[in-house]
Design goal:
Pfam families: DegT_DnrJ_EryC1. With about 375 residues, the chain is an alpha/beta fold. Helix content is about 35%, strand content about 15%. It binds pyridoxal-5'-phosphate.
Length: about 375
Amino acid sequence: MSTISIPFNSPYSTGNEWHYIQDAYKEGKLAADGKYTSKCQEFFEKKYGFGKVYLTHSCTHALEMAALLMDLKPEDEVIVPSYTYVSTANAFALRGCKIVFVDSLPDYPGIDPNLLPQLINDKTRAIIAVHYGGLACDMEQIMAITRKHKLFLVEDAAAAINGFYIDPNKKRQPLGTFGHFATFSFHETKNISCGEGGMLVVNDPEFISKADEVWNRGTNRKAFNAGNKNKYEWVSLGSAFAPSEINAAWLWAQLEQIETIQQNRKVIWLWLKNNLPNLLEEYEIEWMKIPSHAEHNYHLFYGLVKNFKQRDELIKILKQKGILAVFHYQGLHTSPYYLSLENPIQKLVQAEKYSDRLIRFPLFANLNTEDLSQRMQ
Ligand SMILES: *Cc1c(COP(=O)(O)O)cnc(C)c1O
């Protein structure tokens, strides 16, 4: 076995993280909702025009918060792409909802909006639009459908920080500003990270006071601290969704340098785009395409090999050269848990294609492309 010299991902540090964590300690408050939590939340509200932002422990938690805020009940149906991370479906399955899977587009893994109308019925409450790999879904088409059927729209923008949607008039709008709710991840594999972290964006102001309660373990702590309530009580369902100031301090150091981090990733992404097709020519890989309605965020670089056998071979050969490439999502409609619920077997051609054939190459802010290039020869 050779050792891995070029990992798939390596967490990036600006160097200031340690300083801000010490400062958080000096502030005398390490629990949630202190100085650094506010700094991070305000950063997003100002820079991207998000509604109200709540830091969470993960995007998974942010999705669970959204499910609580929508007050989903066991008979409700939620439409979710099959080709996504487990949490996109699990957060709603936790509330007992029926998960209805939609297939992806042939030329990129986002939801195929044309398939949505036939999946909607009286029980449908929400559509979860995943901006796969930071590539925008077709928001015009999806929003026309959620508006027509009066459904909730949740953007699972886990990997989509600093990604934009370009509308037919060429106007650019940040991902995370479309849905009633949007969720993001700061897991170490995402562009901006604090190890494990995430946030919920609440764009519909009607849900803000409820979100304050759900975020605060189902209590009215926020209103009580503001002097608006004379008792601190259990008022709704909720959980300990708010992360500590230690996480927020780490995150703040990254947010301060988001432009640098994005620029580094852009240089590496462009290098991969310009060089991998030559270096891996013999595999006849179909390289990722950026949809015309998306300004992406250099989150990932992928290709489609011919079949999963060839993918295993390529992963093995790269590993021998010390490079770690990976595949990822396996369509959730074929997952052991979903099938254990006695759901009928479905064929979702595109989700199965991406599950079998998609390969992701290393991409992180301080990847050494010279080393990668030499090892690939
Ligand atoms: C990474 C990811 C998640 C999970 O994020 P966590 O912060 O690890 O919970 C959810 N959905 C999508 C689309 C993701 O890429």
